[in-house]
Design goal:
This protein has 11 helices and 2 strands. The protein has about 290 residues and is an all-alpha fold. The chain has one domain. A hairpin with a 5-residue loop joins strand 1 and strand 2. Keywords: Membrane, Transmembrane, Transmembrane helix.
Length: about 290
């Protein structure tokens, strides 16, 4: 069912849950099929490939990589177990590439429709503004998961091709088997995807403030960069625990035995708070927005 079909069949009728599912399916397909989205996913998939090849070349002659503490987390362990490439790739993409991709998609969610003149027609169908906003946010959250899985699967394939796979030594020094390794890798991917919930809500809120998709995307990415800079300034340490990227790298605690849950819970709680605050702000703005396009 295309977006046009959804609009034709939905116009003039009362909202129905199946209609909402049809709109969600249409939004997901429209988002994934855009060249911009495919390009973003391609860049994300390329990061593990580049890291894996670089580590392979660097260690071909028996040398070491990242031995002086430089580079993403876990990079020194990749040659021992290719699964560490998954953790390294996520640590490398989470500070900027993943949230930037999510910011682009979230920023375009409402503003892009308004700029293209299609928002008015979406609201003619019996979704209502609240339901449409929820569908848009669900689409952005689905992209968060998709983008994270793209990095994870790419890193897993490259790691298996270039490096040995087998028992893994955790940060705590204990050894776990391949099945548990893969389970932890999947759990880490889910935690990383959940870490992007706050950025998604922020981008959606910004998207309701303007009719220009480009302006919304640029503003979201600019805010992301600004917050990242503030999170690195020592003099602002009292503010940093309340910034949405502060606990992003806490997913590394899942590689401990036993797992340290404190920072992980702080991260998930903070993302939920940002989602509630900026989601409510987006709803308040969108329900009162004058749709002229």
């Amino acid at each position: 069912m295309s977006r046009a079909d959804v609009l034709r069949t939905g116009a003039g009728r009362r909202p129905h849950p199946l209609w909402s599912l049809g709109l969600l399916r249409s939004e997901l397909l429209t988002t994934v099929r855009r060249w911009r989205t495919l390009a973003l996913l391609g860049v994300l998939a390329a990061v593990p490939v580049l890291v894996g090849i670089a580590v392979r070349i660097e260690t071909r002659g028996g040398g070491t990589v990242g031995g002086n503490g430089e580079g993403p987390a876990f990079i020194t362990q990749i040659t021992n177990n290719g699964l560490f490439l998954v953790f390294t790739a996520l640590a490398a993409t989470l500070p900027f590439f993943l949230p930037m991709a999510v910011g682009v998609v979230a920023g375009d969610a409402i503003a892009g429709e308004a700029g293209a003149g299609t928002l008015r027609y979406l609201l003619v169908a019996p979704a209502g503004r609240t339901r449409l906003l929820l569908v848009k946010y669900a689409t952005v959250l689905a992209f968060c998961l998709l983008a994270t899985l793209v990095v994870t699967v790419s890193a897993l394939l490259v790691g298996a091709l270039l490096f040995p796979m087998g028992e893994l030594t955790t940060i705590s020094g204990t050894r776990i088997g391949l099945a548990e390794e893969l389970g932890r890798a999947l759990l880490i991917a889910l935690v990383v995807a959940a870490s992007l919930v706050g950025v998604a809500a922020l981008g959606l809120f910004v998207s309701t403030l303007t009719n220009s998709g480009i302006a919304a995307m640029a503003t979201t990415v600019g805010l992301l960069i600004t917050v990242q800079i503030v999170d690195q300034i020592p003099q602002l340490h009292a503010l940093q625990p309340y910034l949405f990227p502060h606990y992003w790298l806490s997913f590394a605690d899942l590689m401990r035995d036993p797992v340290y849950w404190d920072d992980l819970m702080n991260n998930l709680g903070l993302q939920a708070l940002y989602a509630a605050v900026f989601g409510s702000a987006a709803w308040a703005r969108f329900t009162a927005k004058d749709i002229n396009a």
